[in-house]
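Researcher: I'm preparing a figure for a lab meeting and need a structural model of a single chain. I don't have an experimental structure, so a prediction will have to do for now. The sequence is pasted below. Please return the structure as tokens so I can convert it later.
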Amino acid sequence: SERVRTALIGPAGENRVRFACVVQDRSHFAGRTGMGAVMGAKNLKGIAALAPVGAGGRMEVADPTGVAAIQKWMGQNLNLVKGLHDLGTAGGILSLNGSGGLPVRNFRAGSWDRAEEYSGERMRDTILVKRDTCAACAVRCKRVVELETPYRVDRRYGGPEYESLSALGNLCGVSDLYALAKANELTAAYGLDSISTGAVIAFAMEAAERGLLGPDRAGGLDLSWGNAETMLALVEAIAFRRGLGDLLAEGVARAARELGPEAEAFALHVKGQEIPMHEPRVKHALGVGYAVSPTGADHMHNMHDTAYATRSRSWEHAQTWGSFGLQEIHGFAEEKMRLFYYHVNFRHAQDSMVMCHFLPYSPEQQAALVRAVTGWEDFDHWELLRVGERANTLSRLINLRQGFTAADDRLPARFFEELPASRTGKALDPEGFARAVRYYYELMGWDPETGVPTPATLERLGLAWAAERR
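Model: Understood. Here is the structure written out token by token.
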């Protein structure tokens, strides 16, 4: 029925794979942080919602005309997102490869000569059968692919986005588009986060290359870089915790602890969450964002330095918060870190709104949308920013309660080394990075040494009650 919507876990969640996700209607995902494993631990297979018939199924809003005006603006400005409509996020494969920011073989290079073979352009011209969308979105950036041979790929599971192509592809040295489409289908069907899945497979391939994962532990699999059949076999093995998949289902941090100290050097994660497919040696503030993210390494509630290196729409929107110049993609200048503070907290606000980050609305337009929906007449973009800051700080308090400290706001050592095959990559400076983290704490109103929110900050954000529950 078109009136039914579902949020389900698959075998990965049932088997408590650490990075199992929650799948909405087969091709939409609450992808990171292992929420599928949480549902599995509670013996909760899924939730189904049935919409009422007729007007009773409509959400009432305070100002329908105001909502319609913002919808109309989006329809009149689709040129701002035409690239996303045409190629989806998979358009990032060639652009990042060209700049040297495509993570190849577990972040050991920034580009390679096979990116075109599975690019967004190649997918569009070969196996794409439809462009899909989230509810009522005019952008239609989601991919739908279909194959009968050499693998059968069911279009009901959508198609691979950039992160899936990159994690299961270049991170593992795999360039076979058909195999990547199949791997994407399997991660969707099994309920696996495709980023972490690709990351643990790349970790296993590097461990085998270094002699830390022998043939017996590999169960007969050839763990050479670029082996598409091994990559596909491991996706299934992880979901069902079979053989080597049982170890990899624990994620790179726990798997590395079992393999020994040498393996921890290339287990790339922050707070146990595997690194997304964006290179912090190309975008230095992004690296700070990985480190301080409350959910572990995350590329969404984060700042991509390259967005502020030109007079882009993102840069224009940044002037909402003050006068900011163009930013260098490397380094941690104070102005850049102030911009980082505004950007990250506004991303947390958008997440609280369940607002897609790809929609080109300005902060003022998004605040206007909140007013139109809720009727909160005095709600402006500054209050929306405070919503994000409040969510960010509350998340910090939860992490502190669970035992995380400032020592966990760090990056893997690999990112402080030079990046081969990259024209824009530059090793992060450890001292500059540490100063940037402390400065971010200060901007947030957290103790600059411990990262603990101060009583004054909690009072300002209406969170004084939360300090008592740490």
